[in-house]
Amino acid sequence: MNAIEPLRSVVAVSAARPDLVEKVMGRGADAILLDLEGEATSDLHRAAVAALPDVVQMLKGRETVVLVRLTPGLEATNELRMFTDLAIDAWVLPRAEDPQQIQTLASIVRAARRPSDAGLVPLIQTARGVVAAATLGGCDMRVMALAFDGDAFAEDLGIAPEPVGLAMPGQQVVLGARAAGRCALGLPGAVRGGDASERFRSLCIHGRALGFSGVLCSALAQAPVANKVFRSSEDEIAWADGIDEQLAARVSGHSPRDRDGRLIDRSVVDRARLVSLRARS
């Protein structure tokens, strides 16, 4: 199982609102996150669960990356058993803290009646989750990426959802993901109500500087901003193209080097690949 390709913008939509799901389609987001709406006892959650199969079927053949956010806790296991045969790309697990739970969910996916390539994305929202980030990232090959919810994390710690308090734990999530060969989604701050203002753009820039590859968006208007910020720059694209050229032209028996004479090792090749993947318009 490979890491999920770098997603710059993942727009969250309630699975209970197929009209909003349709609105998101073809509007520039790299992926759509179908939300099962939190508390398992709520009417909205029950509506989202009931609507999910039809919504996933509606998205079939749309060439869109589809993720589904499960309900936190033990309910996630029940939901995954119920929906494991759905044709989606990844399951997002809120309040991820326990590697054993991730492994249990991965075993459910592997045991599906229909062969599935669906992966898992642990969503880190607590101090325990941040401390366990490296373990969560590498606990199972089904883990495709890690995600960081700065707003929920700030609430867990009782601090303001600002970069001064979230940059360090956010980068711990990035480090945990990268150590396992995965990408990380998130921001070192919170933007309420689907705001796509300069604050959101500033947080995206800060997040990219910390190593995040993209962000979970709460509104469609945020997707173009995230796509632009997390897109590879022209200089980065030229560098990655140069690496590809040097690899193609290397002489047998000689270690490849870049245009500045530096050795091209596996980490450089991986970085060049990420740059190329993030170069989408």
TrEMBL record:
Gene Ontology BP annotations: oxaloacetate metabolic process
Listed GO molecular functions?
A: lyase activity; magnesium ion binding
Keyword Transferase assigned to the entry: answer is: no
Q: Tell me the cofactors it needs.
A: Mg(2+)
For this protein, the record's InterPro entries field holds: Aldolase/citrate-lyase_domain, Pyrv/PenolPyrv_kinase-like_dom, Pyrv_kinase-like_dom_sf
Q: Could you tell me which SUPFAM superfamilies the record lists for this protein? A: Phosphoenolpyruvate/pyruvate domain
Q: Name one Pfam family in it.
A: HpcH_HpaI
Specify whether Magnesium is a keyword of the entry: yes
Keywords from the named record: Lyase, Magnesium, Metal-binding
Q: Which residues form the HpcH/HpaI aldolase/citrate lyase domain?
A: 8-217
| Entry protein name | Citrate lyase subunit beta/citryl-CoA lyase
